[in-house]
Amino acid sequence: MLLRPQSHQELQESLRSAAQSRQRIEAVSLEHFTRVLEYFPEDLTVTVEAGISLRSLQTELGQKGQWLPLDPPQPGQVTIRSLIEENLSGPRRHGYGTVREHLIGLKAMLPDGRIIKSGGKVVKNVAGYDLQKLFVGSRGSLGIVLEATFKLQPRPEVEEIWQASFDSLQESFRFARQIIDSPVEPTVLDLFQFRSEPYAVVIGFAGPREDVQSQKEVVTSMAKLSASSLVHDERFWAGTEPAWKFSVLPTKLAEVLHKAAPAEFVARVGSGVAWCRGGEAPAKAFLPVHWVQKVKDTFDPQHILPEITL
């Protein structure tokens, strides 16, 4: 069943009906919920309906020189709901973190039609349980995210992206680790390769012009840099072949990539996350499936929403 509600009441009635008849709901569209509900530029906070696209939100915030520092692929197609439920991020994850670092409040509807709220609309908020974190990465299995409140950041004065190329995985990884161990604070630190092309490390700096220039000089002393962009991430996600993902300790990233031998990959060096095509995916680490299932049973005892996938 696909739901396209035009109001919260309509969504409540559909969910309650599905729960009573134990009818599975495959997807819920929030295409009619796209408003910016509250925006306080002076407080650097915004509350939006979860159907709004990330690009639309960024456009609204940009008028005040602010932004939500998250940059997943295809922002025009990514809604705030999918941003949260899929825990999406992009190359700037290294410096700005993931959605967990910016989400301060959430409203969601449970499978039985009840509405719950967590967090608040101010940055320094400690009231109640931090339930919104459960919905990050839940893939729509626990409830329907209706609204979200984020803390924002001013747009940096300047952002520069640079790239260094290497002949081997070990050389490129050694350079990336050298950056991590140095005093610089990049906002982007990606390692990638496409087919038979050289390995490359992409470094991004953002902030006051003087700080960006001084950090660039530190990295220039380590390797030869050329001006670049984040096109490597766009290029990877424009591929048509299926991609697979793994996550390891950042220090183990090169070792796992070497064993997997993908035909192409993009990796976030600082977090140990990589997306690959081709090669052989490593065995998944142990996951607490039992506890994950208990959470699912608590929120959705009738299992009318999609099952949790790990």
Describe what is shown at a glance.
With 310 residues, the chain is of the alpha+beta class. The chain has helices at residues 8-21, 54-62, 80-85, 93-96, 132-135, 169-180, 209-220, 231-237, 253-260, 289-299, and strands spanning 2-3, 27-28, 36-40, 45-49, 66-67, 103-109, 115-119, 144-151, 153-154, 158-166, 188-194, 199-207, 226-227, 244-247, 264-268, 273-277.
Number of strands: 16
Coarse morphology: globular
Q: What structural category characterises the helix and strand content?
A: alpha+beta
Number of helices: 10
Reported CATH architecture of the largest domain: 2-Layer Sandwich
Strand order, main sheet: write it out. Answer: 13-10-12-11-15-16-14
Number of domains: 2
| Helical residues, percent | 25-40%
Rounded to an integer in angstroms, the radius of gyration calculated over CA atoms is 21 Å
Spatial gap, N to C terminus: 23 Å
| Average of per-residue pLDDT values | 93
Q: Which fold name corresponds to the CATH topology of the largest domain?
A: Uridine Diphospho-n-acetylenolpyruvylglucosamine Reductase, domain 3
Q: What string gives the helices and strands in order?
A: EHEEEHEHHEEHEEEHEEHEHEHEEH
Secondary structure elements and pairings:
Layout: E1 2-3, H1 8-21, E2 27-28, E3 36-40, E4 45-49, H2 54-62, E5 66-67, H3 80-85, H4 93-96, E6 103-109, E7 115-119, H5 132-135, E8 144-151, E9 153-154, E10 158-166, H6 169-180, E11 188-194, E12 199-207, H7 209-220, E13 226-227, H8 231-237, E14 244-247, H9 253-260, E15 264-268, E16 273-277, H10 289-299
